[in-house]
Amino acid sequence: MPAGFQVFTNNGDVLQIDNEAVVYSLRKSGQVSCNINAFNWIDYVGLLDITGINHPMVAVQSSTPCAVEIIKPTGQNFPQYGSSGRTYVKFTTNTANAQIQYYLFDQWNAPGGNSGLEIFSAQGNRVFHSDWYLMEVVGFLNVPAGTPNRTATYNAGSVGSNRALCKTLNRVITTSQQGGAPVTYKDAVRITGGNAEVSYVAAGDYGNSDGWNYLQDVPNKIIVISTSTLPANYG
To answer: If pLDDT is split at 50, 70 and 90, which confidence band does 5 have?
Structure first.
């Protein structure tokens, strides 16, 4: 048997802790207000500066459809969306001043107290502490290729309460609006009535051409994360 430390679930099927892997744990949580109306249309954006975060994964808990993506502005393009060279999470909704609850996870050496269980790798790096707010994945939802379309909503399935959603893919549709200029629509998620819904929000960014779809014709997957033990404001 290889040397090391491992913890499995009670049925022995799921590896929960391994001294050779750094787990994802909460790095920051809070609320973002979508109040940047850069194109004077129905797109409302909130920004979260995550410059320096190692491997960010962002989950949202929102009753408002919200598109989530990580951006890094360069040059003078879209200065409304942050400073050149910085990295942001961009939240887009079609509701002015929507408040989005977010949970940002990272593979990092989070703070831990002086008591509890600590696990170190063979290189002496701490890879687990029982004080960490771990990312607890409780399910995956499948979104078939081509769904939803731009004007519809797709019910991806029941998630219950105390849940947040993390998209694994950003899909885009463009169509002619505002005098014929193509406008981008981005897929968004929300939780309503205990169900995860996927739809498209008008993002305001100009696209390449009318009818241009980016990854719309491939399946998508949503990670469902438990928030029952996570603080709403952290970091």
So the answer is: low
The 10 Å Cβ neighbour count of residue 199 is 19
Amino acid identity of residue 20, one-letter, is E
pTM for the full predicted model: 0.86
Query: Six-digit token pair at 146?
Result: 């081509």
At 81, is the secondary structure helix, strand, or coil? helix
Contact 34, 95 (CB under 8 A): yes
Edge-to-edge order in the sheet of strand 181-192: 154-158, 195-206, 181-192, 172-177, 213-214
Q: Residues near 149 by Cβ (< 8 Å), separated by ≥ 6?
A: 200
Where do runs of H (alpha helix) occur along 9-107? Answer: none
pLDDT digits (tens, 9 = 90+) for 153-166: 999 999 999 999 99
* pLDDT over threshold 70, residue 86: yes
Locate 17 and state its tokens: 């802790």
179: pLDDT strictly greater than 90: no
Question: Could you tell me if 208 and 146 are in contact, meaning their C-beta atoms sit under 8 angstroms apart?
Answer: no
